[in-house]
Structure formats: structure tokens, C-alpha cells
Amino acid sequence: MTFQLAVFDMAGTTVHDPDLVVQALREALAEAGCEAGVPELRALMGYTKPAAIRSLLAAHDLPADDAHVMHVHADFVQRMLHCYRTHEAVRPMAGAEDTFAWLHERGIKVALNTAFSQDIAECLIERFDWRRRGLIDAATSADRVVEGRPAPDMIRALMAEGGVTDAARVFKVGDTEVDIREGRAAGCGLVVAVATGAYTRAELLAHHPDAVLDGLHELAALLDRASQSHVA
């Protein structure tokens, strides 16, 4: 199978984030009187943040109306923007930039998608200078489509932008169960999980991706094997 488009998640997949998302979400919820535990928060990584916030507020018997959810989300966004602009631990995930370049050398377009809002995504892209350096071709976020993960809307939007019509020629890479579900919903030819973020290898395997990698440096060999065996 010849792939035309790669769709990568951001935090935990292509962006090294030492639990900053969990920390920012926990702090924003605490300001609203919701003392959510880390396991609760980790279980919702990869989902749109307003949806995660609504779920957690409701689980703690707190108001989960649109106004309250948006208030907590706005607090979360400001915390994330500060972290992602200034925290020294925020950097491209090991192997990410080399992988982007390797894919481009083979004529495969590189796109990013994220459960963050677009302002957070753009903050990271600008910090790493990925657009100017030609390392990515497109990026989208959950707030730019009708439905976020696990719906296929973001992948389909990126396909349309890249002129890709066959989802079998797209592969999706992410670090959460909802990334896997998104790739399946979109009909991607290959759905790959990486154990570098919110979920362990065992947790990812339970959701049946086509492969689980320990890092992005293993992706090239996986794609070569898929090409040689004609299995997408």
C-alpha cells in the first residue's frame, strides 16, 4: 500500500509533554471545585477538552452546563498556553522531526490533529517552527470541526485539505484509545499507537491498533514492512 497522508496526534505523540495537560486540567477543575484524580484525567486524554471537562464535572456532581464548561475550559487554555510557551520540558518528541522528514522524502504528506483548541496547537507549531521549516503540511483541532474524537471529522478535513480521497491511503498515529477509535472511524489504512504518552503499551493493545510502537523512531520500519507485505 502506498500511503499519501500521515495524521499525527500532538501531546504525547509528537510533542513531549511531561503530564502538563493533566496538571493544567486538574488545576482548572480544582478552581471550579472539582477535585479530579489523575487516573480520571488520564482516562480522558485525547478527547476534546470541553467534553472531558463536562464529563468530569458531571461525575463529581457539579454543574456541567455550557457556560460552566466554557469557563473552566477558558481557564485550562490559558494555563496550557503559558506552559507551552515557557516550560523548558516542552519539545518535539524524540524521533518526531526525523520521521516527518523521512515521510516527506517518500512523498507522504504530514498533518497534525489534536483535541486541543487551535490556539494551543498553533502555539506549539510556532514554538517548534514546524511550518516554516516545511516539516508539516497541515494541522487542525477539535474546535474547527463539528465533532472531535472519536468522530473522523478532523481526519476527513485533513484529507480534503491534502487532496486525499481514499482513507486507506491514510495512516493515523496517536497515544490514546480515542486516537485508535478515530483512525478506525475514518477508515484509515493503518492505525498506529505509540506508548510515549497517556497510555501504556498494555492499555493500548487492549484497543486493538494495528501496531503499538515504543517510539516514533520505529515507524519507518513498520511502514516498510507494510509496504512490502501490501498490508495497509
CATH topology of the largest domain: Rossmann fold
How many distinct folded domains?
Answer: 2
What's the CATH class label of the largest domain?
Alpha Beta
Structural class: alpha/beta
Overall mean pLDDT stands at 95
- Rg on CA atoms, Å: 17 Å
| Tally of DSSP helical segments | 10
What is the overall shape? Answer: globular
The CATH homologous superfamily of the largest domain is termed HAD superfamily/HAD-like
Largest sheet: 6 strands, parallel
Strand order of the largest sheet: 5-4-1-6-7-8
Distance between the termini: 6 Å
The appropriate CATH architecture of the largest domain is: 3-Layer(aba) Sandwich
Total DSSP E strands:
8
N to C succession of SSEs: EEHHHHEHEHEHEHEHEH
Low-confidence stretches: none
The helicity comes to 40-55%
Which strand-content bin applies to the residues? 5-15%
Explain what this protein looks like in three dimensions.
The chain is built from ten helices and eight strands. By secondary structure, the protein is of the alpha/beta class. It has two domains: 5-17 and 91-229, 3-Layer(aba) Sandwich (Rossmann fold), CATH 3.40.50; 20-86, Putative phosphatase, domain 2 (DNA polymerase, domain 1, Orthogonal Bundle), CATH 1.10.150.240. Strands 5-4-1-6-7-8 form a six-stranded parallel β-sheet. Strands 2-3 form a two-stranded antiparallel ribbon. Helix 6 links the parallel strand 4 and strand 5 (138-141). It is globular and about 55 Å long. The N and C termini lie close together (6 Å). The mean pLDDT is 95.
